[in-house]
Automatic annotation (TrEMBL), chains A, B:
GO terms for biological process: proteolysis involved in protein catabolic process. InterPro entries: Ntn_hydrolases_N (IPR029055), Proteasome_sua/b (IPR001353), UCP009120_prtse (IPR016545). CDD domains: proteasome_beta_bacterial (cd03765). This is Peptidase. It comes from the Bacteria. One of its GO terms (cellular component) is proteasome core complex. Pfam families: Proteasome.
Length: 244, 244
């Protein structure tokens, strides 16, 4: 499985994804699930993927036009005039890949070739935008009321996001929030695993502010993981007692 | 959907279940999902149900022998010699009901007639035991390493259970823990709703220690819900800051 979160802040966009893929518990691998297309000063796109790995790899390869010889590659995602058009292009590519892989099954609910994507970014002259793209190729956009998207194993890490997310928070606070959300998920579900990929995008910068990988031995992640567990227990103990 | 938890403590067993059922968001009802068979001094059984409501109601009706005239009812669950046999009886009843409802589909993974049950209790002369019973009629038992079972919408409320459960905790602490776990679930998923049913069973008492319904306006639940949300935010704020 997978866990990815894309978060809208007043300051910009924050993306985090895990790197574990599994086809059964005896076939676990590490794969990047975060992809970027960045033309500094003009456009920055971040794509995160959950679902069938063959599908998501094919989508990324097609978006990068790896079907063509290296010198002829001219990804049309670098030419679309708007984020909306970028989401349409990614959605169409996803739908086409699923259709091709499953001629009999089609992109219906039970197809094992399904994938769900989060696309965020900005094009010069317009606002930063964040989309969740479904296997059917359609998509929804984040808004003030729904300022984040999760894909993959979304449930364990959702309560803290719902409670602590605040669009006014700083990038540092948002990273902390995502680490707590990921830690809750990792603790509860073996199919989500370290390392994590983190990307910060600052509104109107039209460039990646920070992109880094949080490894197994990352001291800040360990600190958060240990402290959060302890703090939860202390907080829990401090709540008023039930009277039988 | 549903959320039920059965918890083993050194002191006894704790059960909590919600009461919301839904067949689509426009068809929401309130149903009890916790059932008891209690012969003080001899045996106490608690059953909690998740899944298809027609299936779980049929299972309970058959266990209570409501197929017979009232004066002839002599539920065999009150005669089985061991908790293991009680779990077998419940499992067989569940499998039979599913089979009957779905002659074509059978009790396979995609059948909409599925249900999952938690059965706990004690019979005089043996230890209290806790089982999770699958739609196929087979079951697993709780142990020191796996001291609780969840059924229904299990993921949102799992991280706090994993972190704060301690078999040595008192009944009062266990109720607090379950309320936090249920509150996280209710906040994140509309298909789980108040009121909640709570039952406490003390080892070797062979009677129900406490059975109560936690209503929408329960002051302790509101206190926990409000305080936990605030405490989470405070705890989160107190964690060390990420350095960009």
């Amino acid at each position: 499985m997978t866990y990815c979160v894309g978060l809208c802040l007043d300051k910009g966009l924050v993306f985090m994804s895990d790197t574990r893929t599994n086809a059964g518990v005896d076939n676990i691998s590490k794969y990047r699930k975060m992809f970027t297309w960045n033309v500094p000063g003009e456009r920055t796109f971040v794509l995160m993927t959950a679902g069938n790995l063959a599908t998501t790899q094919a989508v990324v390869s097609m978006l990068e036009e790896r079907t063509k010889a290296p010198e002829e590659r001219n990804p049309s995602i670098l030419e679309v005039p708007s984020m909306f058009q970028a989401a349409r292009l990614v959605g169409k590519t996803l739908r086409d890949v699923i259709k091709e892989s499953a001629p009999a099954a089609g992109p219906d609910a039970e197809s094992p070739f399904r994938a769900t994507l989060i696309l965020g970014g900005q094009i010069a002259g317009s606002e930063p935008r964040l989309f969740m793209i479904y296997p059917e190729g359609n998509f929804v956009e984040a808004s003030k009321e729904t300022p984040f998207f999760q894909i993959g194993e979304t449930k364990y890490g959702r309560p803290i996001l719902v409670r602590a997310h605040d669009p006014a928070m700083s990038f540092a606070e948002a990273v902390k929030l995502l680490m707590v959300s990921f830690d809750s998920t990792l603790k509860a579900n073996l199919s989500v695993g370290l390392p994590l990929d983190l990307l910060l995008y600052e509104t109107d910068s039209l460039d990646i502010l920070k992109q880094t990988r949080i490894e197994e031995d990352d001291p800040y992640y360990s600190l958060i993981s240990d402290n959060w567990g302890e703090a939860l227990k202390t907080t829990f103990a401090s709540l008023p007692q039930y009277r039988l």
